[in-house]
Amino acid sequence: MDDRPIGVFDSGVGGLTVVKELMEELPNENIIYFGDTARLPYGSRSADVVTRYSLQCIRFLMEKGVKAIIVACNTASAMGMDAIKSTFDIPVMGVIESGARAAATSSKNGSIGVIGTEGTIATGAYQKEIKRINPHLKLTGIACPLFVPIVEEGWADSEIAYLTARKYLSAFEDKGIDTLVLGCTHYPLLFNTISRVMGPGVTLVNPAKQVAHATRHMLEDKGLISARNCQGRYKYYASDSVERFQRVGTAFLKKAIQSVERVDIHRY
Q: According to the model, what pLDDT value does residue 16 have?
């Protein structure tokens, strides 16, 4: 049994959707979250830069004594996982592996869609991982860059969100997909809107939920699960404006974030 915290990082506040799922899946676990808000978005950066940023984020979390790392950022999961796993001797989970596995097993007709930021879609990371699991599946990836600002403005269930989703997701109309991967940490907040556009015949896969399940199994297998019988404690850090982090993050978690500490991530 191990009461040390789980470390989670993302390029911004989006990874709090992963934290939300972890809170539900592992309510006794302590969690430390770092949002690299000073350098977002990662999606427009090169692989070398994303990897360097990711290593800095993890060094900060390691300084806090975490027992495992969750890379909540889809771009970092796509571009930096090999370097991360070869650099640090600590269990590391990424959102892409878990989401891809769920999508591959969910599809009945073998046709899967993936939506994400331009950076994530450009890497083809979800498509490659799903194909690795089952090479016979058909994949279609669509970038939906406006979804992130819509969510951060608090418009996830608005008519603006619905019309934007219709415009983006119309690209799937002739693909016959029965499964859609929400390949960005912001997108679970658009679940109702996307579901309304896609209809009941399409299963939406939330990688945040899947990585929370996978984390529980990993902690149990490695004997790292918390022995505590009380509610976990949560700490939040950001590399830029803590006020905005609190405001937007509270909407993501559906619970108040009482305090956020600013970190000079460049020194890591």
A: 97
Domain ranges in the chain with CATH number 3.40.50.1860: 6-94+209-267, 97-207
Give the SS3 label for residue 39: coil
Looking at domain 97-207, does it have CATH number 3.40.605.10?
Answer: no
Query: How many Å apart are CA 167 and CA 171, to the nearest integer?
Result: 8
Active-site residues: which are they? 73, 184
pLDDT tens digits for 72-86? Answer: 999 999 999 999 999
Of the candidates 140, 143, 187, 186, which has an alpha carbon nearest to the alpha carbon of residue 167? 143
Give the integer Cα–Cα distance in Å for 2 and 143: 40
Using 70 as the pLDDT threshold, list the residues of the chain that sit under it. Answer: none
- So what's the pLDDT on residue 12? 92
Q: What is residue 235's DSSP assignment?
A: E
CATH of 6-94+209-267, one of 3.30.465.10, 3.30.70.270, 3.40.50.1860, 3.40.50.2300: 3.40.50.1860
pTM over 0.90: yes
pLDDT value for 42: 87
Beta bridge partners of 182: 115
